[in-house]
Amino acid sequence: MYGEFKTPSPAGTYVTLRLSDDTGKSQVMMSDLYYERATCVEVVERAHGDVLVAGLGIGMILHPILRKEAVRSVTVIEKYQDVVDLVLPTLPASEKLKVLLDDIYTWKPRRGQCYDVIWFDIWPDIEATRLPEMARLHRRFRRYLNRANPACWMESWHRQETRRMARQQRNAKQTPQSPLSVQPEESA
Ligand SMILES: C[S@@+](CC[C@H](N)C(=O)[O-])C[C@H]1O[C@@H](n2cnc3c(N)ncnc32)[C@H](O)[C@@H]1O
Q1: pTM score, whole prediction
Q2: Most buried residue among 80, 83, 127, 180 by CB atoms closer than 10 A?
Q3: CA of 50 to the centre of ligand 1 (A)
Q4: Per residue in 150-159, pLDDT tens?
Q5: How far apart are the first and last CA of the chain?
Q6: Domain with 87 in it: what CATH number?
Q7: What is the C-alpha separation between 133 and 127, in angstroms, rounded?
Q8: How many separate domains does the chain show?
Q9: Residue 116 is assigned to a structural domain of this protein
Q10: Residues 149, 114 contacting (CB under 8 angstroms)
């Protein structure tokens, strides 16, 4: 549960996508629990025109986005073939949708292509250390945002909360220890 999204998910059945690294250690990359839904409402609401999404996950946001008449096309960049193989067949068939197997850090839109909405969601959870990665993506993709459209929008998943977390950690480091504070003794 993160920040302002503390409401627990009601009892029910949920989908979880776990990814394993080379050592076999796995972690939850995406689920459709309440806080995931809550943190994706804005992108669904803002989606219109040509939309670029980094990170297929379970394709949760694609269902409502593809249903929107205001959406002309959705291009999804996903790094892992296994995720594409697993999730693509669960998505509604739509001529609007294109899923490309690539890494968002190196993939480039074709010359002249612009997007009205760009959404980066490639992280399994919130870590303050991800802010520079988000900044890098925003810098790289700024030029592909359709600036002629006043409603154009580019965002990373939970960036506000990530910033808040980074601030908290910085403040905690800067707050000097009171000389009267009692330090727990280390056990032998
Ligand atoms: C949190 S999930 C995305 C959730 C998705 N928006 C949804 O609605 O279900 C993150 C996804 O990003 C993918 N991913 C991670 N790093 C990536 C990268 N560098 N480029 C493209 N996709 C990446 C992961 O494999 C995973 O499928």
Answers
A1: 0.88
A2: 83
A3: 19
A4: 999 999 999 9
A5: 35
A6: 3.40.50.150
A7: 11
A8: 1
A9: yes
A10: no
